[in-house]
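User: I need a structural model of Peptidase M14 domain-containing protein from Actinopolymorpha pittospori for a docking pre-check later this week. Nothing fancy, just the predicted structure tokens so I can convert them on my end. Input:
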Amino acid sequence: MKRKIQAGLAVPIVAALTAVVGPAASGALSTAADPPETGLPTPASVLGFAPCTDYKLANYEQITDYFTALDKSSDRMQLMSIGKTSEGRDQVLGIVSSPENLEPKNLKKYQDIAERLAHSRGLTDAQAKELAQEGKSVAWVDFGIHSTEVAPTQTAPQFAYDLVRGESAEAKSIRDNVITLFNPNVNPDGTTHVSDWYMKYVGTEYQDSDYPELYQKYAGHDDNRDWFMFNLPETKNQGNILWHTWYPQLVYNTHQTAAYPARIFVPPFKDPSNPNIQPEVIRGINAVGDAMTQRLDREGKVGAVSRQQYDQWWNGGLRSVPAFHNQIGILTETAHASATPTFEDPADFPKTFPYQGVSTSEPSAFYPSPYKGGEWHLKDSCSYIESTGWAYLHTAATDREGWLYGVYRMGKQAIQAGGDVSYIIPADQADFATAAKMINVLRWGDVEVQQATAAFTVGDKSYPKGSYIIREAQPFRPYVVDLMNPQVYPDRRNPDGSPERPYDMAGWTLPYQMGVQFDKVDAKFKVATTQVEWAKVPNYRMPSTTPGYAYALDPRVNDSFTAAMQLVKAGDKVTRTKDAVTTDQGSWPAGTFLVAAGQGTKARVTAQARSLGLQVASVATEPENTLALSQPRIGLYHGWGGNSDEGWTRYVLEQFKFPYGQIHDADVRAGALNDKYDVIVLPDASYNSMLNGERAGSLPPEYTGGMTAAGIANLKEFVNNGGTLVTVNDAAQLPIRAFDNFPVTDVTEGVPSTDYYSPGSVVATNANANTRLTWGLPEKLDAYSSTSPAFVVKEGATSVTTPVNYPTSNVLRSGWLLGENLVAGKAAVADVGYGDGEVLLLGTSVQHRAQAHGTYKLLFNALLVGGES
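Assistant: Understood. Predicted structure tokens for Peptidase M14 domain-containing protein:
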């Protein structure tokens, strides 16, 4: 078993320890052992302790202080700020190379070479070879994306020190041949939170307790799930370096932990591989991984495993997105994410690894030097990370021309493979503002996009001026094809018949998730275009004269909800129509927002329209059937322990200007919820996690205990007294299981994964547009499913409607879905009248990772139920 060693406590070490422990993890090869550059500050001189010391964690501020001191003391590093974090910290990046390479004119030259080769256009093979000979490898290495995975962050200062000061032939070769983009911390805010938490409680009973909040303000662990969407400031900061500034040929993303009891996972990855990734990328990943494991074994660092746990299917992480940009994306996962040492008892090791039954004790092709157990310290983990880092940079240096020419060759092949295939995003779709947002998401990944400057025709279909065009014939075609087309994940099973789970999502098709209409065409066509740097907010429109009754906002447009909320806040009278309404722009659907014309209204509506790109219509007379809209008092449940779905919900609410307050377990237990809230939202979470919360003793008492049965009774009272309870995905289990005589069941409850399983996929649903929850939505609605519930109304129930239902067949749109027949024809959304209030069951991940713009309106409409009268 794994036994933590408490700070300050003596630990008996058995005499036979050396019989079970592998060779000592003694640090990297003596790369920096020759006479070093003098005058450099050591990490310990700035941090106050040596990095990776037991029971010590440096926070981001301390680490930045060290990198600042190292930068000031050496001409082999340049440190820069690359932007602000979510909490306002400066995020820094170090560039390490030889002083000659770092001279401004030379650095610009090598940057230009990397960009020209990555984009491939306008070069002959001979010219590309000359550039590859002249250029330097550009290699990215990062630390600390997941803040609770502490070893990478703590490794960064020592690795940077060794790389900058080293005088060995290897260190000189790396600095001469490589521009190393050294990112000391991907998630600075989280590093400070987690390190400070550990240091606050070290030596106490809570020493090894988890930080009780999300360690990234909105995403927590999902900060490594934002790399094609670019919601977070940190993702944008670093994406700007990766795909708009430096275009590294190699990207190394360090993580923890390995499949137990391995000491480190190193590529090759396990199958399946995404077919859109070019073969040369996969070969390159395997080659770098082989160099890493060879080095570890030569240094006596046993326990490296490959082809376990992590695949090359998913697109969306810091190491996976590069593979779709013809870059060598490397992931390692190192054991022991704690500053508290442990003793690993080999008698308690599992017999096999999770994948393919590989033995944990016998040598095999991808685990040739098994770890035998023993005492393990943070410095051991750090040593493994630094060793793989040296191997990675050594490979970048020794095959410099190969890496540089390789990205050119792959880019050229991608352009040729694209042929005449294009994706056209029409400018006349109702929510063109969201389409423009999708274009900017793609531009963050350096997708080439054109915009039509005049109307054009393809075949028998005409497209208006302003439509966007994405051609497959571009260097990052793998990225385009992967994001714009449905995924078809192979049905893979373990020996017991259970599904072989992908590393992350199985399907993520971007326009499906965002609700953007597009046409895929395979034909030559003529169109006048301009290159898009960034998509602009669409041109807004205001009525030419003051309307007889009201200004109208289109409910099919997500940003209309933002404008409505801001206008309500400003004191304007806002209503929603229950039926279709006649405007000066034709008939608009039920749910249209009407802003009564009054003093100053035009200026306020114009300001919203201009900033959001809205097409505002006018309504001459007041319709008969309307609902008055006020600003609902929204409470968002915030359980301790960190729930990424709660964080993403906060992010979406803030982006669309919905004010909210956080409700903690203690608030739910205290009751009197109707006094404070009109609407309470339960983000995706299991029933047991909400009921019980964090285990007593695992955290300080104020962070444990959950809602308890008393709190759930208070939620029921809140609904009975007229409140609106909104549940997202699995949170529906709370009212289904705990509210008396609840008239809805979930047909998926208790069904094993061998019979029903969706590891993150896009599914089809049918929406009834004539209900409050579906106002503004299309009848055919793509939604995100993660083994999501499916609802059935109990016989005889009269207080339930099902505004959104799964089709009776062909439920899957992108990804993998086992057990389609179980959910086919069932309800994906249920509107339940309960007492004097309502329970709104949103059975899909309607705000999934702030990617699912296409189903945001389900959440927004649900929130506004609490503000209707």
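Before docking, keep this in mind: The longest strand covers residues 77-84.
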